[in-house]
């Protein structure tokens, strides 16, 4: 099993292959997750939803679904593609996900999740993990979470990533559900105490590596989402801070040069600069000129004929 001390959360429309390549440039050790991909997209979609850059490892596919046969088939495909793990989404509260009978609503069906885990594990040689909430709607007692983890662990799941906030399946948008109801980190700590043999990671509201290190006193891993997306350069400190890795921390200028080369390769194959640059808007946050950097990329990266020089021109507006 790969070390999950730090991971970047799966974020729909955000953690695509370009964002993940960017994050891998910043940190060699952080575990990266795909956006959630549904079984239907993999099995019946017209696009290739699973391709990635070899540099992205360690890399986890987050899978959305609940049909056991489809989940097994997709786990096999993920293994063939070379993913390091498959993660089952039992945490997303959106209506679209509920209508597909996956995401957070599956917390009320632990036996079904357990069956998915068991059969996916039996069919592949890569770990199958689960990302959940601490509860859903009025099913928010500690006993409810304990029963869910116990049932799914008995089926062979060795690693749970728990978003320390319950999901409201009606009445709140997914955006609202990122802030309401309040976080309950202690409940996740208690799960680790009760299941000391399992790897337990925590997600939700974590913004700094100082907070991460506090959680790591109690748990095996920390998953950070929006904070990394909005302030990606924080990842440049991850290997040094959390793993005491002595490799030099990349400067922003070095990151820009590496990503410029990546953009050149991508554009040469028919891609557009904006597909990559949109994930880099927060790279210079905190520096004088960061606003001009963001604006220059936003206004120019979608233009016909744009190339990597645009990234360097944008960076020239920043005072390091």
UniProtKB/TrEMBL annotation:
Active site residues according to the UniProt entry: 92
Alphabetical list of InterPro entries matching this protein: Aldolase_TIM, DUS-like_FMN-bd, DUS_fam, DusA, tRNA_hU_synthase_CS
UniProt domain DUS-like FMN-binding: residue ranges: 8-315
Keyword terms of this UniProt record: Flavoprotein, FMN, NADP, Nucleotide-binding, Oxidoreductase, RNA-binding, tRNA processing, tRNA-binding
CDD domains per the UniProt record, alphabetical: DUS_like_FMN
Residues noted as binding FMN in the record, renumbered to the chain: 10-12, 62, 131, 163, 203-205, 225-226
The enzyme's E.C. designation: 1.3.1.91
Pfam hit, one: Dus
Cofactor: FMN
Marked site (Interacts with tRNA) residue numbers: 89, 175, 178, 294
SUPFAM superfamilies for the chain: FMN-linked oxidoreductases (SSF51395)
Transmembrane portions of the chain: none
Purpose of the protein: Catalyzes the synthesis of 5,6-dihydrouridine (D), a modified base found in the D-loop of most tRNAs, via the reduction of the C5-C6 double bond in target uridines. Specifically modifies U20 and U20a in tRNAs.
Similarity comment: family membership: Belongs to the Dus family. DusA subfamily.
Protein name in UniProt: tRNA-dihydrouridine(20/20a) synthase
Organism field: Thalassotalea piscium
């Amino acid at each position: 099993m790969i070390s999950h001390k730090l991971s970047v959360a799966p974020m729909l429309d955000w953690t695509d292959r370009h964002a993940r390549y960017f994050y891998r440039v910043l940190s060699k050790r952080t575990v990266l997750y795909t956006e959630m991909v549904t079984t239907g997209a993999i099995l019946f979609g017209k696009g290739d939803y699973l391709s990635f850059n070899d540099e992205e490892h360690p890399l986890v596919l987050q899978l959305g679904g609940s049909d056991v046969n489809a989940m097994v088939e997709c786990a096999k495909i993920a293994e063939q593609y070379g993913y390091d793990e498959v993660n089952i989404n039992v945490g997303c509260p959106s209506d679209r996900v509920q209508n597909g009978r996956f995401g957070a609503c599956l917390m009320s069906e632990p036996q079904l999740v357990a069956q998915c885990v068991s059969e996916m594990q039996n069919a592949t040689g890569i770990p199958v993990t689960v990302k959940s909430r601490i509860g859903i709607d009025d099913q928010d007692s500690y006993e409810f979470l304990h029963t869910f983890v116990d049932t799914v662990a008995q089926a062979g799941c060795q690693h749970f990533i728990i978003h320390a906030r319950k999901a409201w399946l009606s009445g709140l948008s997914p955006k609202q559900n990122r802030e309401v109801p309040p976080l309950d980190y202690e409940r996740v700590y208690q799960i680790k105490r009760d299941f000391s043999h399992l790897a337990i990671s925590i997600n939700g509201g974590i913004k700094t590596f100082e907070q991460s290190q506090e959680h790591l006193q109690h748990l095996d891993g920390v998953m950070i989402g929006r904070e990394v997306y909005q302030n990606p350069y924080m990842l440049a400190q991850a290997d040094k801070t959390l793993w005491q890795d002595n490799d030099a921390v990349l400067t922003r200028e070095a990151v820009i040069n590496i990503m410029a080369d990546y953009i050149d390769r991508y554009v040469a194959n028919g891609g557009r600069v904006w597909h990559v640059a949109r994930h880099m808007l927060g790279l210079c946050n905190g520096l004088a000129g960061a606003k001009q950097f963001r604006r220059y990329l936003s206004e120019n990266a979608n233009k016909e004929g744009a190339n990597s020089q645009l990234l360097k021109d944008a960076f020239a507006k920043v005072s390091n």
